[in-house]
Design goal:
Blueprint lengths: L2 H26 L8 H7 L8 E6 L2 E6 L5 H11 L5 E6 L2 E6 L2 H10 L8 E4 L5 H10 L4 E5 L2 H14 L4 E4 L12 E6 L8 H5 L1 E11 L2 E9 L2 E10 L23 H4 L2 H9 L6 H10 L8 E6 L2 E6 L7 E3 L7
Parallel strand pairs: 5-6, 5-8, 6-7, 8-9
Antiparallel strand pairs: 1-2, 3-4, 9-10, 10-11, 11-12, 12-13, 13-14
Helix pairs in contact: 1-2, 1-3, 2-5
Length: 331
């Protein structure tokens, strides 16, 4: 088979594989809050944003490459690019630095962002550029800004975006500082896990803006009142992302669970509570509260930022269960 014929076969396969992925996302219910995102996922070609990725196996990571001379390897790469799974895209000494998130989770987050035509969006964590492309398709290049700390990541994201025909603003910098020169924003979406919500983001938001970010294995949706106040609840779904990288943002040490009942230790909802209250509630106290309150789901928790303070809470901001969060003032 000639190279041109092989490329045509891969193009045809990409179209059919994208249609299969779209059906999987629809079946997950991810588009419920934003049906118009279906068109973006139907059009934007994910494989252009993952020219290679890594698949974990018994012997370590296997690299799948779209330019492999072996046609079977290229076919496996393309099919894998359209599976509804996260793809590891950057490794360093065996540590995951960047990934392309699971498409159905991306769709859910974009739908829950509840954008309207003309909204200006800041994305924290450029990744491969795929999410920025979806945003650009929906809102237009001029309304989308994406930022990442690593210049290699922003350069590759910019290259992928241009290849796919999108040109949002791509900035190299500390995402915790936002991008003040592009403010104000109507929406901020983070694709990396936070330990707190930076105050700089609030200051760069228009009144009534929405911030959607992974925190403590959940997704917090905060409505911004002004530069000093924001509040909101977690979505029901779990979320696991690469941590936000930057100065003084190291990952917390694992928590010892000795003495915690097995039912709690093995439950994702308890581990969410444990992560949310890290440093303020010991595991035994957290387990007792979790049992007493009927094993609450993520949607019963929320976060408030007000007057220089930030706290997480169960059921009500001023209720009996509230825990301080790390200082979110940032640099």
């Amino acid at each position: 088979m000639s190279a041109d014929a092989l490329d045509q076969d891969l193009d045809d396969l990409a179209v059919s594989a994208r249609a299969v992925l779209l059906r999987a996302i629809e079946a997950s219910g991810a588009f419920a809050a934003g049906p118009r995102w279906r068109d973006a996922f139907a059009v934007v070609p994910r494989h252009l944003f993952v020219p290679y990725y890594y698949v974990s196996g018994a012997g370590g990571y296997e690299r799948r490459w779209g330019e492999s001379p072996d046609p079977h390897t290229r076919e496996r790469w393309l099919r894998g690019a359209y599976e509804d799974t996260p793809l590891a895209t950057r490794l360093r000494d065996g540590v995951l630095l960047s990934s392309s998130s699971q498409p159905s989770l991306m769709a859910l987050m974009l739908a829950e962002l509840r954008v309207e035509d003309g909204h200006r969006v800041l994305e924290i964590g450029a990744g491969t550029g795929y999410n920025a492309a979806l945003l650009s398709y929906r809102l237009g290049d001029g309304n989308v800004t994406t930022v990442d700390l690593d210049p290699e990541i922003t350069e590759s994201a910019r290259r992928h975006l241009e290849e796919a025909g999108y040109r949002p603003t791509v900035v190299t910098g500390d995402g915790a500082r936002g991008v003040p020169e592009r403010a104000p924003f109507d929406r901020i979406i983070a694709t990396c896990t936070l330990t707190s919500v930076p105050r700089a983001w609030l200051a760069q938001c228009a009144p009534g803006a929405l911030i959607l970010a992974p925190l403590a294995t959940g997704l917090i949706a905060l409505t911004v009142r002004d530069a000093g106040h924001a509040e909101g609840r977690f979505l029901e779904t779990g979320a696991y992302f690469v941590p936000l990288r930057g100065s003084d943002r190291s990952e917390p040490e694992p928590v010892a669970l000795a003495g915690v009942p097995r039912r709690a230790r093995e439950n994702d909802l308890f581990r969410f509570l444990l992560s949310l209250t890290r440093g303020t509630l010991d595991p035994q106290e957290a387990a007792a509260l979790w049992e007493r309150e009927g094993m609450p789901g993520r949607e019963r928790y929320g976060i408030t930022l007000d007057a220089g303070h930030a706290w997480a809470w169960l059921d009500e901001p001023e209720g009996p269960y509230a825990w301080p969060l790390p200082d979110p003032s940032g640099p």
